[in-house]
Amino acid sequence: MKKLYYIILFFVCIHTYAQKDSTKVQQVSQLQLRSPKVQYNPLSPSKAAFYSAILPGAGQIYNNRYWWQLPLIYGGMATSIYFFIDNSNEYDRFRTAFRQRSAGLQDEFTLADGTQIISTAGLESAQRQLRQNRDLSLLTTVLIYVLQIVEASVTAHLIQFDDSDDLSLSPTAIPSRDAYDASPKVGLTLKYTF
């Protein structure tokens, strides 16, 4: 019962706030001309996605939302590319040592007296781990690239969304009109006005 009370109280507060807010809008609209609504451009999301596909971050620049997104995009891609290159170089290093050891040659992990710093099984294990890390870094780079394209397209859609004060939510409580049933009933109606 307490939950129901809090839910009703929440909607009454929203309704009261919406009424106060709508009176302000009416007063302001009487004093000054309303700004024109933004025209919907159906090609804007596809342009933003295209620009992002050509150059990462260009869609965010097209949307004028680049001040915090570009550092994340380029920082994430640069980090994952750095780890890709580093893991690839280390993989090649261990792979070369493993091949030399398999051929019976001196490798960089074997001392001059024949003592092995890393065993053959250790070289194989390092190769597997470094290959997984390299592939994960490549996957992360591709994922960041795709996500920034999707983000540019979605942002271009949402920029054009009408968020003016003409939109409102009006919760209303309607009493039951059933004469035969005297038990209290609770209902909720949401009314959207555009």
From TrEMBL:
It holds the Pfam family DUF5683. Residues 42-194 form the DUF5683 domain. The chain crosses the membrane at residues 66-85, 136-159. It comes from the Bacteria. Keywords: Membrane, Transmembrane, Transmembrane helix. The keyword Membrane applies. This is DUF5683 domain-containing protein.
